[in-house]
Write a structure and sequence with these properties.
The chain has about 550 residues and is an alpha/beta fold. About 65% of the residues lie in helices and about 10% in strands. It has a 6-stranded mixed beta sheet, with helices on both faces. Strands 2-1-4 form a 3-stranded antiparallel beta sheet, with helices on one face. A two-stranded antiparallel sheet has the order 6-7. A hairpin with a 2-residue loop joins strand 10 and strand 11. It is elongated and about 110 Å long. The two termini are about 55 Å apart.
């Protein structure tokens, strides 16, 4: 598979490749002709045949128009080669992240896949242009004066060979730069994800250090990479300027052997307008974009390679959540956000999690859903750690709805049925009715209307995300303040719908009414966690009584 992607097999469709090559042929003609045309026009003007000179220049303009037509068609065919490659890479990155839970997959998906896509397109154009120029110039020089070609071509090829020799050292530095980029993305993602808990525990200085070191490492790697450009400049001087100097130095000698002034000027034209720009472009492309393409592609393929066969679905015993002596901290020197937590959430439970802001409620949700890995203790979902429950079948075990609901461009139906693509119209209609999103769907134009995320409010996005989660086959649903932008009545209807839905419901509560609707309530209070019913906690938990008293009356609604 790696060999296929490196050379574009599967992305370079045969028909598009043939068309690209075919439309490159017309570009060879003006490249081959312009030196000859300049030489013949110059000699004609010097001999007093002005109209012959004008005719040669007119022919050059005509061939340039033909080449422009070919170039226009080349750009039109480029997308047929590039976009399938990007689609293949995205599928591999997402699949690898689901198998491994690798945080650096965000960097590969957001930046590195785009690097590969853009540089692949650029390399196709640059290498095609270089081949066209080299073939055209060689044909033109040999037709014009083989003796001139003997002085021009060898130093040009020497400079190109030296630039290829520099690529090995540059590759190591590009590889170090990409590694530093992934480390920075992973560290920044962890810090940003836990910003509320970091603020609550007063570990801002450690978070700054945690991100500062990868930033400095990336800057060092980029500075080392920049030094390679000096060597590329030397290679360009050999291949781009040395042929010009040799041709100027040997000019009198060539004239003595019958080379006309026009022919000498034509040779200089081939160097200045053809070989020199082509060498500069291909060296920059291979030395920068080319290295990033090969190394980035290699890292994507290496890190998204198929992992060992995951555990079979029948090895997972249901979806009960068992937490034993669980500890989690955002870094080795940070204070634990959760410490020694013991909890069992039976199948079919309706649990509300409450506590002050930054106490670790969202962290617990991330741990249950496998987005974070415990730093101590064990958390088992149906007998397996949540981070291992990552195959397509086992990922259907739980669904997480965060505070910032996500909707995407597409139809309303696409958004609602994303977690159950084969959902029937009746299933979707029932989910919309249960959550209370019927009015919103009607206002948007029905299930087949196009969704424009930028025009939706935060509450409307939450309603669509809640329907999507309700419709999913996952028996364990985690609502992490997923109704915070809804009014109390809309929140009540949504939570009651999930409570009546088959499976387990865990609600990270931002209103006391959510706690009142739950069967049991977990109160997080520093390193202490208390579990019980509302009535029991009002007697035994001072933290719960304080939370209850801090909520406004309109947030307190009796359980249905």
């Amino acid at each position: 598979m790696k060999r296929e992607l490196v050379f574009g097999a599967g992305a370079l469709r045969k028909r598009a490749t043939v068309r690209l090559i075919a439309w490159s042929v017309p570009e060879i003609l003006p490249t081959a002709v312009y030196g000859i045309a300049v030489a013949r026009a110059t000699d004609s003007f010097l001999d007093g045949h002005a109209w012959q000179g004008v005719a040669w220049l007119g022919g050059l303009v005509a061939t340039a128009c033909l080449g422009a037509t070919g170039a226009r068609q080349v750009y039109g065919r480029l997308g047929d080669l590039v976009e399938p490659l990007r689609d293949d890479l995205v599928r591999r990155v997402v699949g690898g992240a689901l198998r491994s839970g690798d945080d650096s997959a965000v960097a590969r998906l957001n930046r590195q896949v785009e690097i590969v896509r853009d540089t692949f397109a650029g390399l196709v154009l640059v290498l095609r242009s270089f081949a066209v120029t080299l073939f055209g110039v060689l044909a033109g020089l040999l037709s014009l004066a083989p003796l001139v070609a003997a002085f021009v071509v060898p130093p040009f090829l020497l400079g190109f060979a030296l630039s290829l020799a520099v690529l090995g050292m540059a590759a190591d530095r590009v590889r170090a730069s990409l590694t530093a980029d992934e480390a920075l993305a992973a560290s920044a993602g962890m810090v940003f994800g836990g910003v509320r808990d970091i603020t609550a525990t007063g570990t801002e200085e450690y978070a700054e250090w945690l991100v500062g070191e990868p930033i400095e490492a990336q800057a060092t790697a980029e500075r080392a990479l920049a030094k390679v450009s000096a060597l590329r400049t030397l290679c360009f001087a050999v291949g781009g300027w040395l042929p010009l100097l040799i041709l100027l130095a040997t000019g009198p000698w060539l004239v003595e052997r019958g080379v006309s002034t026009g022919t000498l000027l034509g040779g200089l034209t081939y160097v200045l307008i053809g070989l020199q720009p082509a060498l500069n472009t291909v060296m920059n492309a291979l030395g920068d974009s080319g290295l990033r393409y090969v190394i980035t592609l290699g890292r994507i393929l290496d890190t998204s390679a198929a992992a060992a066969r995951p555990r079979q679905v029948d090895e997972v015993n249901g979806y009960q959540v068992r937490i034993r002596d669980l500890t989690f901290a955002y870094g080795p020197k940070a204070e634990p956000v959760l410490d020694g937590l013991e909890l069992t959430i039976p199948e079919g439970e309706h649990l509300a999690v409450v506590g002050p802001s930054g106490i670790g409620k969202s962290t617990l949700a991330g741990l249950v859903c496998g987005m974070l890995a415990p730093t101590g203790g064990r958390l088992l979902l149906g007998g397996a750690p949540p981070t291992e429950v990552v195959t397509d079948r086992l990922a259907r075990t739980r669904v997480l709805i965060p505070q910032e609901a996500y909707v995407f461009s597409g139809t309303v139906r696409d958004n609602l049925s994303y977690l159950l693509p084969d959902a029937t119209e009746d299933q979707i209609a029932q989910a919309v009715h249960m959550i209370g999103a019927g009015e919103l769907v009607d206002r948007m134009g029905g299930l087949h209307a196009e969704v424009k995320p930028g025009r939706l409010s935060a509450g409307e996005k939450q309603l669509l995300a809640l329907v999507r989660a309700y419709l999913s086959p996952a028996p364990l649903a985690v609502l992490d303040e997923a109704t915070c932008f809804l009014d109390p009545e809309a929140e009540r209807r949504a939570e009651e719908a999930f409570a009546q839905r088959h499976g387990t419901l865990i609600v990270i509560a931002h209103r006391i009414s959510s706690a009142l609707r739950a069967r049991r309530i977990l109160v997080l209070d520093g390193n202490k966690a208390t579990l019980g019913t509302h009535t029991a906690l009002m007697r035994t938990s001072r933290m719960y009584r304080d939370l209850h008293g801090s909520w406004t009356p309109d947030q307190i609604q009796p359980a249905s």
